[in-house]
TrEMBL record:
<dbReference type="Pfam" id="PF23310">
    <property type="entry name" value="TPR_27"/>
</dbReference>
<dbReference type="InterPro" id="IPR057136">
    <property type="entry name" value="At2g35280_TPR_dom"/>
</dbReference>
<dbReference type="InterPro" id="IPR040338">
    <property type="entry name" value="At1g67623-like"/>
</dbReference>
<protein>
    <recommendedName>
        <fullName>At2g35280-like TPR domain-containing protein</fullName>
    </recommendedName>
</protein>
<feature type="domain" description="At2g35280-like TPR">
    <location>
        <begin position="74"/>
        <end position="163"/>
    </location>
</feature>
């Protein structure tokens, strides 16, 4: 039995427990994780763990994806390798919108969407709708629960606009808009007033013309 006066530090704990603790710290704040790593070489070594990279909070980079083109390359490589959904979302935006590598971009966005990352569920769904892949696109948007409340979808849209700010965009998908335009006029100029008849159509219009 350990002496009651013995001090047990984080680095004294079993490696798997330390990894779990550091993953939780990293999921809250990358900056806080960096502070922990600077406190001990042993902790810095323990932080080089796949669970830490998978859970690492990349939120600041989500809103500035272009920053990862020249910086954070090692970080992005490690987080992508270990299945970090925010890393896949960032990579998807860069590939699809900036590099015009649409297939690669969609693959990364789909991985993030399947990981239940809300912004990627919205963006992947709306891209599919805009490309004419209606059923799958609707299925992803429906997972955001817009039929009951549009709050989650609206929040996703605001965040997506921040992420896409300054990123080159692809040509508008105007053919899809013409095909999907409701036969009955549902206040089509009012993009915030959306019912179940015109929701998908208005989401595409916002995506194509307002980014």
């Amino acid at each position: 039995m350990a002496d009651k006066n013995t001090t047990i530090t984080l680095s004294d704990l079993p490696e798997d427990i330390v990894g779990e603790i550091l993953a939780r710290v990293g999921s809250s704040s990358r900056r806080q994780l960096r502070h922990v790593m600077e406190a001990s070489k042993a902790l810095a070594k323990a932080a080089n763990d796949k669970g830490v990279y998978k859970a690492l909070n990349l939120r600041p980079l989500v809103f500035h994806p272009l920053a990862t083109r020249y910086r954070y390359k090692d970080l992005m490589e490690k987080t992508l390798t270990n299945g970090n959904i925010e890393a896949h979302y960032i990579k998807g935006i860069l590939e699809y919108f900036h590099k015009n590598n649409t297939i690669t971009g969609l693959q990364h966005l789909k991985l993030a969407a399947r990981g239940s990352y809300s912004e990627s569920m919205y963006l992947y769904g709306i891209i599919l709708l805009s490309r004419g892949e209606m059923e799958e696109g609707k299925a992803y948007l429906d997972q955001l629960g817009w039929q009951h409340s549009k709050t989650r979808g609206n929040r996703c849209w605001r965040n997506i606009k921040k992420s896409l700010h300054g990123v080159l965009r692809l040509p508008a998908y105007r053919k899809t808009i013409r095909v999907m335009k409701p036969t009955i006029m549902y206040n089509l100029n009012d993009l915030e007033n959306r019912c179940h008849h015109c929701y998908y159509y208005k989401q595409i219009v916002k995506f194509v013309f307002i980014i």
